[in-house]
Amino acid sequence: MPTRQRGISLLESLIALLVLSIGLLGVLGLQTQSLVHNRAAYFETQATNMAQDMLDRIRANREKAADYALTLGGEVDGSGLPATDQAEWVADVSTMFPGGVGGIEIDNRRISVTVRWEDATSPNDIRQVQLASEL
Predict the structure, then answer these.
(1) DSSP bridge partners of 103
(2) Which pTM value belongs to this model?
(3) DSSP assignment of 34-67, as one string?
(4) DSSP characters over 68-114
(5) Which of 19, 28, 35, 85 is most buried, with most CB under 10 Å away?
(6) Is the distance from CB of 50 to CB of 92 less than 8 angstroms?
(7) Dist. CA 116–CA 88, nearest whole Å
(8) Three-state DSSP class for 130?
(9) 128: helix, coil or strand?
(10) CB 128 within 8 A of CB 43
C-alpha cells in the first residue's frame, strides 16, 4: 500500500518561487518607471518656476523691460540690473538642467520666457517650458 504524501513537493515550491520572482521583477519595473517620470515632472516644475522667476524680475523693472531680451542659449551682454538678472538666471538654468538654456522674447508689452533642456531618459529628446505674460 502506497504511503500518503505529506507537505509540498519540490516542483510546487519551484513554481511558487518562479511566480514570486516574476511578480517582484514587475514591481521593480514599475518602481523604475515611477522614478523616471518623477524626475521628468521635477524638471518641468523647476523649469516653470525658473520661467516665472524671470517674468517676476522683468515685471519688477518695467522701465527697462526691453533690455531683458535674450536669444535662446545666447550670451548675456549689457550692463545694469537687466544684465545682472539675466546672468544669474542663465547660470541657474544651465546648472539646474542637463543642457539647460533659456531665452527671453519681448514684443511690445508681451514677454515670453523659454527654458529648454535635454531629457536624459530618451536620447535626442528636448523638453521645454514656455511662459508668456503681458506687462
Answers:
(1) 114
(2) 0.80
(3) HHHHHHHHHHHHHHHHHHHHHHHHHHHTGGGGGG
(4) G-B-TTPPP---SHHHHHHHHHHHHHHHHSTT-EEEEEEETTEEEEE
(5) 85
(6) yes
(7) 16
(8) strand
(9) strand
(10) no
C-alpha cell at 57: 524680475
Size of the chain in residues? 135
Q: Which amino acid is at 74?
A: G
Residue 92 Cα distances to 8, 106, 132, angstroms: 62, 21, 20
CA distances (Å), 16 to each of 12, 22, 28, 82, 90, in order?
6, 10, 18, 66, 56
Model confidence at 92: pLDDT above 90: yes
pLDDT category, 1, cuts 50, 70, 90? Answer: low
| CA 59 – CA 132 distance, rounded (Å) | 12
Which amino acid makes up residue 11?
A: L
